[in-house]
Amino acid sequence: MPLTRKQKARNAAMLKTAEPVVPTQLEIEKMTGYEFGRAKRNATEYYRLDGNKKDSKKLALQYAKNTPQFSQRLKELRAVKDWRFSAPLAAEISCMLKGWPSYNQKYAEYWKSLPGTTGDVKDTKEYINQQLERILIEGANDNKVDEEKPKVVRKSPIELYKEKVWDTVMGDVYDMEDDWIEGKHTTIDIYQLFQKYGLTSKANGIVEEVINRWLVEYTELMTARKQKLDDDWNQQLIEGYSHLDNKEVKWRISQLNKIMEDLNKVRLSTKANKTTRIKKPKAADKQVAKLNYMPECVEHKVTSVHPTTIIGAHRLILFNCKDKKIVEYFTDRVDGFEVKGQALQHVTSCRGKKLRKPDDFLPIALSKTEKQFDKEYQKLTTKEYNPNGRFNNNFVILRTDKRR
Question: What's the pTM value of the predicted model, to 2 decimals?
Answer without folding.
Answer: 0.43
